Amino acid sequence: MPQPLNYLKETASQTAGPYVHIGLIPAMAGFDIFEKNFSNVLVTPSTQGERITLEGKVLDGTGTPLRDVLLEIWQANASGRYNHPADRSTGVLEQEFRGWGRAGSDFESGLVTFETIKPGAITDRAGRTCAPHINVWIVARGINIGLNTRLYFSDEEAANAADPVLNLIEQPSRRSTLIAKRTERAGQVVYAFTINLQGPEETVFFDV
Amino acid sequence: MNAQAPASRDPRLNRPEPFTPPLGDGGFFQRDRSIHPPAHAPGYKSSVLRSPRQSLLSLEGSISEITGPVFGHNDLGPLDNDLIRNYAKDGDPVGERIIVHGRVLDETGRGVPNTLVEFWQANAGGRYRHKKDTYLAPIDPNFGGCGRALTDDTGYYYFRTVKPGPYPWRNYVNSWRPAHIHFSVFGSGFAQRLITQMYFEGDPLIPVCPILTTIPDKDALDRLVAPLDLNASTPFDSLAYRFDIVLRGQRSTYFENRTAGN
């Protein structure tokens, strides 16, 4: 027998369930408990970059919006720097921009929104430029392990065409499932997205 | 628009204490999907329409995945890990008083320091304080049912609560969840993000639960069951349960820029 490796095993995932809001967004469950709450607003007045709204829905295999889904996003700031000590890139680190937020879908419409800024491009470990993107993590009743995907931006066509992750997707038609569409509404930039959990337009999900 | 609280505006509240990732800044160990529940697990009916049918696309961990949000003590309030007191209005909540404690580790066995652990649960009668829960068991006026803690330098966390009750749910005609506490854990990178549920030693509902038994691996299932920990209990006050949580391990970066293929 060789030496044992003795690694621990990761704790198994379980669904977040229908009442995930109690723990993660208590105001949506219907009560107020913490002094400080996390939210879907990532920006403060001093945040650098273009203000954008992300707005979309998560659909099940019948095309019905999930009305009990919770999304978290994680992104770089406008100069392409993550607010984390492992990011040693040269972009400007903005102490006040955490780069993370969470949102529950509306209980009636299923709409999910974030107020954030458009992230800058980042460089991957091989030195390649990655198109601006936002990392998304999805949990809900019926989802046994959180789903990872990305949102890219429709007005970054050249960068998207060169993005090393989008180019890993074998079928070009599936790449479009990750592109949020830029629109303007009353002077505000809105990127609209749809995440299809299942079916012909199924969104690409990653094993990260 | 959602009725959600605004973000904390005071920039000082968002400032974490500096910390060093435990094992360099390499990617994470590959997730062993054989110990996790599959997306499509028909015995848990709502997974049928909410599970992707295409394969997941594997990514080498890039800076987007090995980094993640950093939290600090300024994000938390002093009672956030005390569910006996953090929603008390005119007394203590009803139920078995318990302490739940343990460590957040990674697969190498190292503690994960300064990471955010969030937890939520039903009250002693199995009723959730949520506008969508209509179970006939009553709300406890002194129990909210959620809390959070930051692990210490060794990865240790603890909180105080009442033991939740089982409750019925619409899966099979007569499905009941075992007593459980939901956990949400961050780790140091977004790829470690994990939500799971803790169960209690000896609960006879465990082997018949359609959610818990989505887990194909018996040992993985057993690791979600917290043993009674008399050593950590407080005489004439609270029993205790021990629940360790393991996140993915992180590789060291021995050499930079060793790229694969493309």
Parts with pLDDT < 50 across at least 5 consecutive residues of chain B: 1-24, 258-262
Count of helix runs of chain B: 2
Q: How far is it from the N-terminal to the C-terminal residue of chain A, by CA? A: 33 Å
Shape of chain B: globular
Sheet bearing the most strands of chain B, described?
Answer: 5 strands, mixed
Q: On the 0-100 scale, what is the average pLDDT of chain A? A: 96
Largest sheet of chain A: 8 strands, mixed
Kindly report the spatial arrangement of strands forming the biggest sheet of chain B.
5-4-9-10-11
The secondary-structure class of chain A comes to: mainly beta
- Order of helical and strand elements of chain B: EEHEEEEEEEEHEEE
Helix content of chain A: under 10%
Characteristics of this structure?
heterodimer; A: 208 residues; mainly beta; eight-stranded mixed sheet; two-stranded antiparallel ribbon; 9% helix; globular; B: 262 residues; disordered N terminus
Structural notes for this entry:
The complex is a heterodimer of chains A (208) and B (262). The longest helix of chain A is centred in the last third of the chain and has 6 residues. The mean pLDDT of chain A is 96. In chain A, a hairpin with a 7-residue loop joins strand 7 and strand 8. An eight-stranded mixed β-sheet of chain A has the order 3-2-7-8-9-10-1-4. Chain A has a two-stranded antiparallel sheet with strand order 5-6. Chain A has four helices and eleven strands. By secondary structure, chain A is mainly beta. Chain B has a five-stranded mixed β-sheet, with no helix packed on it. In chain B, strands 3, 6, 12 and 13 form a four-stranded mixed β-sheet that branches. The N terminus and C terminus of chain B are likely disordered. With 262 residues, chain B is mainly β. The longest helix of chain B has 5 residues. Classes of the chains: A mainly beta (208), B mainly beta (262). Strand 11 of chain A pairs parallel with strand 2 of chain B, so a sheet runs across the interface.
